[in-house]
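Record filed below.
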Amino acid sequence: MASSSAPSTRLDLATIAVCVVVPTVLAIIVYRSSAGLWFWTDDFVWLNAATNPNLFDSAKEAFTFPRGATPYWRPLVDFYFFGMYRTVGTNATAYHVATLVLHIGSGVLLGLLAFRVTSSRITATLAAAMFVISPTYSTMVPWASGVTATLSGFFSIAAVYLYVQWLLGGRSYRWVLLAVAMLVAALLSKEDASAVIGVLAVVALALRPPSQLRDLRALGPALAPFIAIGFGYVVLQLVMVIGTAETPRVDIGWHAVPNLIDMMNWISLPWPLWYADWVSPARWAAVGVFTSVAAITTVRRQWLLPALYASTVLLLTPSSFFTVSFEPRWTYHASLPWAFFIAVLITHGYEWLSARNRIVGGTVFGAASFVLLLALAGRSIDSQNWIPDEANQYRQIERVLAANCTGVTEDNSVYLFPLPVVDAKALVPHLIGVFLADVTVHHVSFSSLEQAPVPKSNDCGLAWDPTIGYSAQTVP
């Protein structure tokens, strides 16, 4: 399959520099404030699990399900937090920087992949740039727990890049073996990577369309290990998740179809419906145009755009089976081929105009690209505006506890009164486990104090009042 007749696109230093510098600069501009954020929501679940000092116990917890340490079967993420906690402790900046570096790395690899496939530096630069600033998933990056997506996304795009390297002229199956290793790492980071197997098949058919059955069979040996790993992973997930608290969140049914349509609408125009009345019709118009383009190019037997469109749909599919409300952050993996798809469309438009008038083509392309990147960056920055307040709420809780509950030990209890932060009952106990001790937590209200256990010396109570904010008091 990897014949000498395949096109060979050598990466020159200028292309590598552009694919590294452009997404790095843009990502830093868009996510520059994330380094100053503290932890929030699910971060405390992973951090609390990482406080276990025993590597063997942590590894056992990481590969066992169901368990109480972390909510998902993502062993590589467990190991990531274990290593980070041992290295930087609770330095939130270090976690945010690591997440951003992985995100930029995915953008760089996407740009290199786009150049490898299209030989176009313009397409490569646009794909990398649009991905790193896309507002489709923007809350994933300024979030320490977002490493589940950035880690898995990095390994996923690495697997595709290595596989394409083999398809387009690699003479050794070492590329396939390396791609297999990257896929395994991606699967151990997040469930969305299970769709990468389908993406690899689509990419293979697009870059090496079979002219006869013999050519199709030639793909088998290279795809077989990916299919086997994917099948084993899906079976493992089903066996581990069925019967656990995760079961109600996932259901195999026709509800996945409207969910998938909603996600395609969002990724086609990632502006919320409350933003303006025109957003809803514009979304449907955008997804209609993009779907039509993919269909027309399929009829014309031009396979790149249909392959990128299909890859986007495949990467959205795992999340479409969720029974809970759609969250934009689920589109992180799908945003990779989608940025490539849009970049190819823009490049085609530029080439078409330039063939008629180079000055007009260059001017329109430059202006359109600038406006598009500016709009995407602005929307991504706006979508993060609520995060500092959320993170500061948890920071205030930690400071109040540290200042007023100094005598708490594992033998003590912490009494939590109703708090205004999201999922306080589920998440604040994990925060307490990270910064105080693995204590017993009682959820109480002022109206049910009589039913609460009788506090003992050094027990601590945490409450919130709209006039004074958070307060804590230790029992003498």
In short: The first strand starts at residue 413 and ends at 416. Residues 1-8 have pLDDT under 50 and may be disordered.
